[in-house]
Amino acid sequence: MLTGLVCLALYYFYPAGPRVQTLGATLMAGAPLMFPVAFLSGVLFTLLGDSLKQGGESETRAAGFLTLANTTGAMLGPLLIGFVLLPKFGVDRCVQILAGLYLVTGLVILAGRARPEGRVGTVITSLLGVALAATVLMFPVGPTLERHLEPVIEPYLAGGDIKVVATREGLTETIIYLEERAFGEPLSYRMLTNGYSISGSDLIGQRYMKLFVYLPMALNPDARSALLISYGVGNTAKALTNTAGLESIDVVDTSADVLELNRIVYPDERDLPLNDPRLAVHIEDGRYFLETTPRRFDLITGEPPPPKMAGIVSLYTREYFSLIYDRLTEGGIASYWLPAHLLSPDDSKSIIRAFCDVFVDCSLWAGAGFDWILLGTRSATGPGTAAAFARQWSDPVVGPDLRAIGVERPEQLGALFMAGPEDLEEMTAGIAPLTDNRPKRLSDEWFDLQTQVDAYVPWLQVAKPRAQFANDRFISRVWPVEFRESSKDYFDIQWEINLALIPIAGRSLETQLPKVHYLLSQTELKTLPLWMLGSDTDRQDAVQIAIDNGTQDVHHSWELARGELVERNYGRAAELAERTSRDGSANPDMRVLSLYSLFMSGDATRQHALIRRLEETDSGVRLEPWVVPFLKRSACPQSWPCL
User: Fold this and answer.
1) Which DSSP category does 267 fall into?
2) Mean pLDDT over residues 415-428, rounded?
3) Closest CA relative to residue 172, chosen from 275, 67, 285, 279
4) How far is CA 310 from CA 81, 306, 314, 482, in A?
5) Alpha-carbon span 399 to 388, nearest angstrom
6) CB atoms within 10 A of CB 531
7) Confidence band, pLDDT 50/70/90 cuts, at residue 329
8) Domain co-membership, 442 together with 529
9) What is the DSSP string of 368-400?
């Protein structure tokens, strides 16, 4: 009975602190929670043996019965807990049930004792029994689990309209879904599994996860079969089902709950990737699937959990990559996640070395921020023609999806190139590959944002990849000749994309607007300038839905103004921005963008007149001192006279 009380008390009162990330910290945090129950269970084991002996059994028979019961319980207990109690009742209800079993066990023991305990013992035992019974009956199932989950969820709730929309305790994981809203509409979702942010449908998640498909499909447009290992929130699966040319899509994941909860992200059954008739689901371990399936695939991609999570490192080793290679068809392509932001540079190099030991034409590509893509092939020879390579951009489903993630033209895809086989060989010189027998080649370090920036921004520099792109042996084999030179023109733009997708503090309209102006006046790109102005296509869609539903205020107009600006509808953008800038609570940047939109909507004469008006001391317009000089510089394109 005392063990049951301690079990409930520890679960209820044990402080719910932040996730620990080192072995020592884990031991320090876990010992107070686990040791008392384990110790008291050991005492109970001894007392049960004593009760059997007092019941008339010999020491040998008592020890035998007790060992048999203990072994049977140890064998059946995990099966009962794992397959029945946890999936059906969850952690907190299971703690309540187990404490109740301690109560029942105590009552059975008391009923079978051959001699009385004495008055004091009887009183203590009775009080413990009553206390345990009351605690079991009144145990706050639900709120207790929520209290323990709060430290996991809290870091993700800051900075927006974010709330928990689903929690599920599965066989091997506790899944939490967070929803971010904008303008009253769902904007994106994040899935936490066992305290880790595993996947999300925000801009960064969509970009690199969909590129797992769209990049290899550009190089192998005739691919007909695809295998996805680990499902996440369905970004990669959605890119696969968007691809009309695929005839079969196999998805492997260990959790049926992960798949079932994906309906949160895709509430419309027509959009849910799992409803695609070409898609087959396999609930099993991805590595086991690769070892046992006789099939081969034209495309294999994977977005498993981060490699430093328990039990995941074996999905990043040389042996695992060998299994992927063996399951590719001739000419097939594999794309794989390299989560650099969770790894030290040497960790990343060890995984790269493991990948390149298997794929002799391995290459590294930018995804989004510090989420990168490893690409390898089984003797792929490329798409054959420029038309085949560019086919996705004319597809009515894939084309808009590519533009939404910032790859608006086929040439931009080449600017994702970071390093080819020779570069990676040089980069990983002296680094041992991550292998099944050497999993600790990954460090235990975790990194804050500034450390990531210091370590990895140099990897994103574009000067060297641009110089090597056209001459790289892998690129010369798989990239259409027509796009090699034109792709080089987009590396500078890729650098701006890299910066836009890294949450670096200190960005201001003063630094961004000149770049936005260049993109608007010298290119046809829309997505990157929209990102630089703090918006994206999902926000634009959300505000349009809200307006269609009859809601519009200053914030809606401000969002629409940014969308109109990147569409080069400068007059409409000026009108919307001016409407928002009249509100005293509006963002101070609104006034600047209102003037910029007005400036861009006129001819040279009107632009010069606007500048002269702003320079008048009695104009009444309060602006940052950089605005007028910027407008002067912007009024000097080749076709206009400079002031």
Assistant:
1) -
2) 94
3) 285
4) 20, 9, 10, 46
5) 14
6) 21
7) very high
8) no
9) ETTEEEEEEESS----SSHHHHTGGGGSTTHHH
- What backbone torsions phi and psi does residue 12 show, to the nearest 5 degrees? -80, -45
Query: Structure tokens of 50?
Result: 């004593």
Q: What CATH number should be reported for the domain holding residue 477?
A: 3.40.50.150
What does the pLDDT average to over 280-295? Answer: 95
- The answer to the question of residue 190 being in a domain is no
Q: How many independent structural domains does the chain possess?
A: 3
Q: What span, in angstroms and rounded, lies between the C-alpha atoms of 121 and 117?
A: 5
What is the span of the domain harbouring residue 421?
211-500
CB 199 within 8 A of CB 228: no
Give me the pLDDT at residue 581, please: 64
Q: How far apart (Å, rounded) are the C-alpha atoms in residues 102 and 115? A: 21
Q: Beta strands 225-229 and 297-302: pairing type? A: parallel
CA–CA distance, 53 with 62 (Å, rounded to integer): 6
Is there a domain that residue 152 lies in?
Answer: no
Identify the bridge partners of residue 333 per DSSP, sorted by sequence position.
Answer: 299, 377
Provide the sign of the torsion angle of the four alpha carbons 261, 267, 272, 274, taken in this order: positive
Q: To which residue do tokens 């084309």 refer?
A: 399
* Tokens matching residue 294: 């006789």
Compute the distance between CA of residue 197 and CA of residue 195 in angstroms, rounded to an integer: 7
| Pair (360, 265) in one structural domain | yes
- Both tokens of 67, joined, read 């060992």
| In a domain? residue 91 | yes
In single-letter form, the type of residue at position 578 comes to E
d(CA 389, CA 478): 10
Q: How far apart are the first and last CA of the chain?
A: 89
Do residues 180 and 160 lie in contact, with contact meaning Cβ atoms separated by under 8 Å?
yes
Task: Give the range among 53-57, 213-217, 293-297, 408-412 with minimum mean pLDDT.
Answer: 53-57
Tens-place pLDDT, residues 487-533: 999 999 999 999 999 877 567 888 888 899 999 989 999 999 999 99
The residue with tokens 């009108």 is: 575
Tell whether 468 and 545 lie within a shared domain.
Answer: no
> Does 542 have pLDDT greater than 80?
yes
Phi-psi region of 637 (alpha: psi -120 to 50; beta: other; left: phi over 0): beta
Looking up tokens 């769209």 gives 214
Q: Give the dihedral sign, CA 201/207/209/213.
A: positive
Sheet strand arrangement including 225-229 = 279-283, 248-253, 225-229, 297-302, 328-339, 371-377, 363-368, 417-419
CA distance 212 to 222: 16
Query: Residue 11: what pLDDT?
Result: 67
Question: For position 301, what pLDDT does the model report?
Answer: 96
Residue after which a domain boundary falls, among 145, 171, 187: 145
How far apart, in whole angstroms, are the C-alpha atoms of residue 120 and residue 105?
Answer: 21
> Residue 48 has what DSSP assignment?
H
Name the residue with higher pLDDT: 117 or 600: 600
